[in-house]
Design goal:
This protein is mostly helical. Helix content is 71%, strand content 0%. The protein has three helices and no strands. The chain is elongated. It starts with a helix and ends in an 8-residue tail after the last helix. The model has no long low-confidence stretch (mean pLDDT 86).
């Protein structure tokens, strides 16, 4: 099964660009997430953390 998939993927032109694009998307996403975590307001983080503990039945 793997041999079939491997040979099929080799017939696609430019298939080597897909892993690079995936790595770039992964890197950009986690870089932005890392940046957001360190720049987020502490009050906002605390408020979101306490939200499940509130007893407001709406």
């Amino acid at each position: 099964m793997l041999k079939f998939v491997k040979e099929h993927m080799q017939t696609i032109d430019g298939v080597a660009t897909y892993p690079m694009i995936s790595l770039l998307i992964f890197f950009v996403f986690f870089t932005l997430l890392f940046w957001w975590v360190f720049t987020a307001r502490k009050e906002h983080i605390k408020e979101m953390g306490e939200m499940p503990l509130e007893n407001n039945n709406q």
